[in-house]
Amino acid sequence: MKSHPATIAALACRLLLVLVGLGQTLSAQETNAPAAVQIATPSASFGRVKNFSVPDYFEPPNQNQMKSLLRGAEAAPQPDGRVLIRDLHVETYRPDGATEFVIRAPECLYDAAAQVASSASRFEARTGDGIVIRGEGFRWQQTGSTFNISNRVHTVIPQPDLVASKP
Question: Mind listing the domains of the chain with CATH numbers?
Answer without folding.
Answer: 5-156 (2.60.450.10)
